[in-house]
């Protein structure tokens, strides 16, 4: 008998447009021989299943069910592809935990912690061979921020919303005169802002997932952008960024990166597939942790799919492995 899967998308933030694109790709690939798939869109005050005729069937939040005609449908599991809040910050995970519905992404605590870039760095920074850029975490926009930043950190700097994603609200600052505008841009997206020293190095993004008790680290993708940094446009508009999978690393670098990535996954108690961004510093080759994405994109230009294919696996089979974990844990 087929499992009924809720494909959850939408969201409360600017990343919702990416969630919809990711969901369209996942919806087209999921194995219909194994699953009946129902897309569920989640917006503030409006959770619904869109029918082919355009009707919006409301979700009963008591048990996350939908009723089409006289037939009530409950779900065996959730494929979560909702980027940002509430799908990536732990809110949705906490709700699913309360009603006993398994889902493909990290639990509520891990999701909430990893959404906060500063807190995540504090947890992983003592992993052997892993380095983090010096940073300042700001909790409110005050006139003293610029003075503190220039006193404690060296230019150039990355300024980013601490709980954001898709590089929305992010800036690179090379001159003190650029600080004010960059801080305003970041605080417009979040109440917390992270200011980091720029690491000069090769940029990579790597997927990792757990299935059948084993952690699999995928081949890293090297990011070569024609832009100043891997921003929203570079991530989601084809042609701006060259993505090399597998990335150009020596055998020693691959082995070291894989050791570090597996430890990050374990230390943060991750579940399902996550993607971790890092730099290898030019002069030293040191591994600098940037951030972790617990609901990585699945759009046509996304990195996880490239990495899955690089190990000779079909993306459909990869999704099957993620969903199999839901019931293996029962």
From TrEMBL:
Annotated binding of Mg(2+) 1, by residue: 277, 291
Principal cellular location given in the protein's record: cytoplasm
Reaction catalysis annotation: 2 D-alanine + ATP = D-alanyl-D-alanine + ADP + phosphate + H(+)
UniProt-annotated location(s): Cytoplasm
Domain ATP-grasp per the UniProt entry, residue ranges: 117-324
Cofactor note: Binds 2 magnesium or manganese ions per subunit.
A GO CC term assigned to this protein in UniProt: cytoplasm
GO aspect biological process, one term: regulation of cell shape
EC number: 6.3.2.4
Active site: 15, 166, 302
SUPFAM superfamilies referenced in this protein's UniProt entry, alphabetically: Glutathione synthetase ATP-binding domain-like (SSF56059), PreATP-grasp domain (SSF52440)
Ligand binding (Mg(2+) 2): 291, 293
Alphabetic keyword roster: ATP-binding, Cell shape, Cell wall biogenesis/degradation, Cytoplasm, Ligase, Magnesium, Manganese, Metal-binding, Nucleotide-binding, Peptidoglycan synthesis
GO molecular function, one term: metal ion binding
Needed co-factor(s): Mn(2+); Mg(2+)
Top-level EC class as recorded in UniProt: ligase
Pathway recorded for this protein: Cell wall biogenesis; peptidoglycan biosynthesis
PROSITE patterns to which the protein is assigned, alphabetical: ATP_GRASP, DALA_DALA_LIGASE_1, DALA_DALA_LIGASE_2
Function of the protein: Cell wall formation.
Similarity comment: family membership: Belongs to the D-alanine--D-alanine ligase family.
Alphabetized HAMAP family for the sequence: Dala_Dala_lig
Protein name: D-alanine--D-alanine ligase
Encoding gene, per UniProt annotation: ddl
């Amino acid at each position: 008998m087929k499992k009924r899967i809720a494909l959850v998308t939408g969201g409360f933030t600017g990343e919702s447009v990416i969630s919809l694109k990711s969901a369209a790709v996942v919806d087209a690939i999921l194995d219909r021989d194994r699953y009946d798939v129902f897309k569920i869109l989640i917006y503030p005050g409006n959770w619904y299943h869109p029918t082919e005729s355009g009707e919006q069937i409301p979700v009963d939040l008591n048990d996350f069910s939908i009723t089409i005609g006289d037939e009530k449908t409950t779900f065996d599991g959730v494929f979560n592809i909702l980027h940002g809040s509430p799908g990536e910050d732990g809110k949705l995970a906490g709700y699913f935990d309360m009603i006993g519905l398994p889902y493909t992404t990290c639990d509520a605590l891990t999701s909430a912690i990893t959404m906060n870039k500063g807190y995540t760095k504090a947890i992983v920074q003592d992993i052997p061979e892993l380095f983090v850029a010096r940073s300042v975490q700001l909790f409110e926009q005050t006139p003293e921020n610029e003075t503190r930043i220039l006193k404690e950190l060296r230019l150039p700097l990355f300024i980013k919303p601490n709980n954001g994603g898709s590089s929305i609200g992010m800036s690179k600052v090379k001159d003190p005169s650029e600080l004010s505008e960059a801080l305003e841009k970041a605080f417009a997206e979040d109440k917390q802002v992270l200011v980091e020293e720029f690491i000069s190095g090769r940029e990579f993004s790597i997927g990792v997932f757990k299935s059948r008790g084993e952690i699999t680290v995928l081949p890293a993708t090297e990011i070569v952008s024609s832009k100043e940094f891997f921003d929203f446009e570079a991530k989601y508009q084809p042609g701006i960024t060259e993505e090399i999978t597998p990335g150009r690393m020596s055998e020693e670098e691959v082995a070291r990166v894989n050791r570090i990535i597996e430890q990050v996954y374990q230390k943060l108690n991750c579940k399902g597939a996550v993607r971790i961004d890092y730099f290898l510093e030019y002069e030293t080759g040191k591994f600098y942790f940037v951030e972790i994405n617990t609901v990585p994109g699945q759009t046509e230009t996304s990195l996880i799919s490239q990495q899955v294919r690089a190990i000779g696996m079909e993306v459909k089979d990869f999704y099957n492995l993620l969903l199999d974990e839901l019931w293996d844990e029962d």
